[in-house]
Specification:
- With 493 residues, the protein is an alpha+beta fold.
- Helix content is 29%, strand content 20%.
- The strands form 5 sheets. An 8-stranded antiparallel β-sheet has the order 17-14-16-15-19-20-18-21. Strands 7-8-12-10-11 form a 5-stranded antiparallel β-sheet, sandwiched between helices. Strands 1-4-6-5 form a 4-stranded mixed β-sheet.
- β19 and β20 form a beta hairpin.
- α2 runs antiparallel to α3, α9 runs antiparallel to α12 and α12 runs antiparallel to α13.
């Protein structure tokens, strides 16, 4: 039967399609089209199961026919990471959606993996709560955010999405529905209303897998010498695994009250070197920032034609010479959240620390919560202690031969950078080698999040990965037949 399914035999392929339609319903199973691809690899079928049990049936069918399965949420990060070796069935999680166990003031909620993050926030907002997750990908589902362990500015205070997990339900490669940690009902019985569970400083826990196909940064320890993976160890392994270790069905997450007031305190910066001192000053000011973000765009000269310094088009520009005396290369922005009076007082203290060039706004800057890269670029994720961020940025500039857009959460030591998609693969490889040689001595890493197909095939996406043996053990334990997104994980797993 496997030969029939893998061959060009139309009858064998139609048989698979009919069985998928019987599981998911006629409108929700079909042959894949040109747009149904994963990092350039086109699927053969698309199945959209209506619930966990139907999704389990899809996985059991795949096992019976020796077919591979790759989960897909909204597809916002479907081109991140390595291309899978093969995509037989694309399992669309769009109908695995919903928000449950959410009485007023509850500290947790169980959320279906296919639920768009915007819908989650809109549902929770009806009871004045929010999920402290602000992933930059527009339209992303919660499952997709967890599968990539994708974080936004709020990571500084609350940690990565993985850090906020209470429990998950997932399907293993054989189609068994597994629950780990606590369900929403169990967690409600344990959590006091209003308890946040945030983690100042924002570092992901040891089990977090990482964004952009960067799994196994430590979570694999749980499987060594124990004969199994209890509780949230498995949940944290699934974070960042891009569907290569299991198919997320739902997640029970911590929720928080919506802050009554928010202020963005910004200061222009001119060099990466000064960012270190500024961030240290922010963290020492005892203002409890919710986020500390840096934007270092490629400098754009001001217009050469004469414009009066009081003209509306330039007067409010933080890089205007009338304000700074010289064009700014970027900005450091701190988000403060809380009660109105408290936030105003903290903003005043922070302004005194950062100096007269500081500005306070009720609105986020235009670039806030957005990546510096565009489709077609080579997108890099750099993790490095704040003391050494300047070294990484200068190494990137030197290797590239000019300024490179850099943006991200400097308070937690994670930023993204963009290289032009027009750079040839060998040039990108040399840039990565130079940057990684600087980072390795500084306990830093540089991961290729996304890239054009030619670059993705030619370069080492992850760099040195000490956790690879543990990741290999996890794959053997959770997906011994390599049916789930084979090749998406480091080492071709």
């Amino acid at each position: 039967m496997a030969d029939a399914a893998r061959s060009t035999d139309r009858l064998g392929a139609l048989d698979i399609t009919r069985k998928l339609a019987a599981i998911c319903g006629d409108p929700f199973a079909r042959f894949a089209g040109p747009a149904d691809e994963v990092a350039g690899r086109t699927a053969r079928w698309v199945a959209v199961p209506g619930g966990p049990h139907a999704a389990a049936e899809v996985l059991r069918l795949a096992a019976a026919y020796d077919l591979t399965v790759v989960p897909r949420g909204a597809g916002t990060k479907i081109d991140w990471g390595a291309a899978p070796a093969q995509v037989d069935i694309m399992l669309d999680t769009g109908r695995l959606a919903g928000v449950w166990h959410e009485p007023h003031a509850a500290a947790v909620a169980e959320i279906g993996a296919g639920t768009p993050l915007r819908a989650v926030q809109a549902t929770l907002a009806r009871t004045n709560r929010r999920l402290p997750v602000d992933a930059p990908s527009p339209g992303a589902t919660l499952g997709g955010v967890l599968a990539a362990d994708e974080s936004g500015p709020l990571r500084h205070r609350h940690g990565s999405p993985c850090a906020q997990l209470i429990g998950v339900r997932y399907l293993d490669a054989g189609g068994e529905l597994v629950s780990v940690g606590e369900s929403g009902t169990e967690a409600l019985g344990r959590a006091a209303p209003g308890v946040g569970g945030g983690r100042p400083g924002g570092r992901a826990p040891a089990g977090a897998a990482g964004v952009g196909g960067d799994p196994g940064r430590g979570g694999g320890d749980a499987i060594l010498g124990r004969g199994g993976m209890p509780g949230l160890d498995v949940a944290r392994l699934l974070c960042g695994s891009q569907g290569g270790l299991g198919v997320l069905v739902s997640a029970t997450m911590r929720v928080h009250a919506v802050p009554a007031s928010r202020l963005w305190v910004s200061r222009p910066v001119w060099t990466p070197l000064e960012v270190h001192d500024l961030v240290r000053a922010v963290l020492a000011a005892d203002v409890d920032p919710a986020a500390v973000e840096l934007d270092l765009p490629v400098p754009v000269p001001l217009p050469r034609r004469r414009i009066p310094p009081t003209h509306p088009s330039v007067i409010n520009r933080p890089d205007h010479p009338a304000v700074t005396g010289r064009p700014a290369a970027g900005s450091l922005v701190v988000l403060l959240e809380g009660g109105p009076a408290d936030v105003t007082e903290r903003a005043a203290r922070l302004t005194a620390v950062l100096g007269a060039e500081t500005m306070v706004s009720h609105h986020a800057p235009e670039w806030w919560g957005r990546y510096p890269f565009a489709p077609g670029d080579t997108a890099l994720r750099i993790e490095v202690p704040i003391n050494d961020l300047h070294a990484a940025v200068y190494a990137l500039r030197d290797a590239t031969g000019g300024p490179v857009p850099v943006r991200g959460s400097v308070g937690s030591g994670t930023v993204h950078a963009a290289l032009s998609g027009a750079l040839p693969p060998e040039r990108v490889a040399s840039i990565l080698t130079a940057v990684r040689s600087v980072l390795i001595a500084r306990r830093g890493r540089c991961v290729v999040v996304a890239a054009p197909a030619a670059v993705r095939r030619a370069v080492d996406l992850w760099g040195e990965l000490p956790a690879l043996p543990r990741l290999r053990s996890a794959k053997a334990h959770l997906d011994p037949h390599h049916r789930l997104a084979p090749g998406r994980l480091p080492g071709g797993l």
